């Protein structure tokens, strides 16, 4: 779940409130029902994949249709039946968009049709139409749902239909019974569900008491029933084992189970339908909370041609209006489906505008200005970065500059400084378009100096340090970098003068070291480090250029200690710069000391483990030192508390003796420097 889903949950709560107050239409005054239906129409247009909205809408609509003082303007009567074109169109839309998890809508439709079908005038033709509807609903929806407890009642309602079959003779009775028998066999052999055993027991009893032609024999379907019953027991045991999992993991496990057992189904289409049913069932519970369920639904539905992919992305952004991920997927899908035509560009522009407006809605942006660790600041920043990306891809440099202009207007209008990495991203796209755009990039970065460094030296230095690292690493020429640094110094001097004015109350006068806090002085020096690094490294270490930087520092901060400038220069030549932070404290060993061969101690020394000491690369054999020599080495003073025990002559004599011992031990080669 994303951190920016609060607004979406508020929408969900409002829908739930409307759903709750319309549970029983009979409690709602007729005069208010039409107003509520209009509200439902508006919500269903915006949130058409919300099952509970459709359920309450149809219940209220049908009640109003049957009990209102006047028939709906879309309604007519025919042979005692109420026919409403708008209702039929709504049923068709709901069933199509919610499939295969749409049994609740089918159930409302069936009850509505059963109440309005005239079996006297329609006869067997009307009955046959309802029978076909029952079978269709079973195959396309209810049979896919092992979670439901409606199967037995549904089948009993189906059997009750046949009381309208006007039996004229014994042959007609057999035809009726065979019709029932054929469909019950289909119901118990096409799927597995909780009520399967209950349905089978009823069927066995009914079959023994109703005559038939022998065309459909129960013993022929018994093995299939046993297989389905076994499959349900297996599935039930599996599903019960998921009780402690969260919703996401439970759905994933159910999908995996279906995939593992897809060979058990009569055909691949059944497996695919069951797979989609599980996705949609989970989707309905998380559609306001999870970007992932939308991506899952779109991927598994639009690929099969069931849904229009762009329609689903459009609706996804209405359910989750602050989802950057879904917005990007929508933008890319638009380009794939429609190409880079103007309608695509206009849609993407509108989408990003809405995304920004929805993200900042009801938020105090001034309070998060410059706070790049704030989640809202970070979210708005990444939105603008991605807007640069999408506009550049669709419209080239023109689109990039339009998007960057929108960003600059935003931080000016909203008085909210977002992450300045957006300036660097913009420069990268400029250089990708044309490597000769370095002067443009310097102007872009200079704009940031004025916006991020105004009245705040710390922000100015952070911005400069980040962007200066970028321009030096990106291969900008010295002239460009120097020009950029001049702009920085101008902004810095203005800030320092303002700071001194605040500290001393004077509007003019020399800026001295005592007027600049220590932390701020260090902050300023950090900014000079990339510039020194460039001049002494990338620019081949020209002495005069480095010296000129020293002069600049002295002008900027008069009275600064020379050692501070020296430390700034020397630090960028330290090997520690190349080490991970946690390893900086480790000693940097010379290249020659790469291996540490073990030195085996004499047996008469009471030591538990061999001691490793650095030795040159060329010595690779194990050497056993005499005990006396090792005793001398152990007693030598340590460097950190060194108090000389020997003068120079004694040390030279000791070294000669040591090398003599090594020579006697057949060491072929060693090096020695006087």
Describe the overall structure.
It is a single chain. This protein is an all-alpha fold and 674 residues long. Among the domains are: 6-245, Serine Threonine Protein Phosphatase 5, Tetratricopeptide repeat (Alpha Horseshoe), CATH 1.25.40; 448-577, no CATH class; 598-664, no CATH class. Helices cover 65% and strands 2% of the residues. It contains 27 helices and five strands. It has helices spanning 6-21, 30-46, 51-67, 85-98, 103-116, 119-140, 151-160, 170-189, 196-208, 218-240, 247-260, 268-286, 291-302, 309-319, 324-338, 342-360, 375-395, 397-413, 421-433, 438-452, 457-473, 478-504, 518-538, 543-556, 562-571, 627-635, 648-664; strands spanning 75-78, 81-84, 598-600, 611-612, 623-624. The strands form two sheets. A three-stranded mixed beta sheet has the order 4-3-5, with no helix packed on it. Strand 1 (75-78) and strand 2 (81-84) form a beta hairpin. Helix 2 runs antiparallel to helix 3 (51-67). It is elongated, with a radius of gyration of 41 Å. The two termini are 70 Å apart. 23% of the residues are buried.
